[in-house]
Automatic annotation (TrEMBL):
Residue ranges of domain IclR-ED in the record: 67-233
Lineage: Bacteria, Bacillati, Actinomycetota, Actinomycetes, Mycobacteriales
BP-aspect Gene Ontology terms: negative regulation of DNA-templated transcription
Protein name: IclR family transcriptional regulator
Alphabetical UniProt keywords: DNA-binding, Transcription, Transcription regulation
Length: 233
């Protein structure tokens, strides 16, 4: 999802970076992806190349440069750091796939996960973007988001405001075959020190194994994991 800061040159430069991150491209492709004039796209790409944010590969195509990786390695995310201690424990208790989601506009992003070593799994790689219209993780994030955002999401969601009210009442959500056929999941909110919901922790797996109502089986363990993660924050 692309955002607009209101600073024209910054937004255009970010558009160029995102276009190159999508797939290495030449100037024509860069213009097509960004809708920028050739002169503007070229000037921004060359400037980003100077700063190491882009580079040209052996085919002369622009792609993400080494400076992006250097900056990414310096990022410290307390939520992800806390998840590294908590998610593997929840995976071992349940024997199922565990994910941590953060909302980004009308999507949710998997920012961390832990997978069982073997067996049939519901694997969601880190960085995966999923819609906010289905699944227990989506319900949790939607239940505590701003009213106007929630109303927009409910227009296309597979759940209702009544469902979200129930999620807020009991403190967790569950789903079966909403996001993907044959997959069920249960999720709970993660709150920051101020009490705001900043993420959703989820356990998911094949419906044949964890049942159509996984909350009856895993809600207590899930809530305990959420509490442990919040204490680490």
């Amino acid at each position: 999802m692309r955002h607009h800061s209101g600073i024209g040159v910054l937004d255009k430069a970010m558009g160029v970076l995102l276009a190159a991150a999508e797939h290495p491209c030449n100037l024509s492709q860069l213009c097509e992806r960004t809708a920028l004039p050739r002169a503007t796209a070229h000037r921004l790409a060359v400037g980003l190349e100077t700063h190491g944010m882009l580079l040209r590969n052996g085919d002369g195509l622009w792609q993400i440069g080494p400076r992006v990786g250097e900056l990414a390695s310096a990022v410290q995310d307390p939520l992800i750091d806390a998840a590294a201690h908590v998610l593997p424990r929840l995976r071992d208790i349940t024997g199922e796939s565990v994910q941590l989601y953060r909302r980004d506009g009308t999507e949710r992003v998997c920012i961390a996960g832990a997978e069982p070593p073997s067996g049939l799994r519901d694997t969601v790689p880190t960085g995966t973007r999923l819609p906010m219209t289905a699944g227990s993780g989506a319900k949790v994030l939607a239940a505590w988001c701003a009213d106007h955002v929630r109303k927009d999401l409910l227009r296309e969601a597979q759940f209702t405001e009544r469902t979200l009210a129930e999620v807020r009442r009991r403190g967790w959500a569950q789903s079966s075959a909403e996001r993907e056929r044959g997959v069920a999941s249960v999720a709970a909110p993660i709150r920051d020190p101020r009490g705001a919901v900043v993420a959703a922790i989820s356990v998911s797996g094949p419906t044949d194994r964890i049942g159509r109502r996984p909350g009856t089986r895993w809600a207590d363990d899930l809530l305990a994991a959420a509490d442990a993660l919040q204490r680490r924050l």
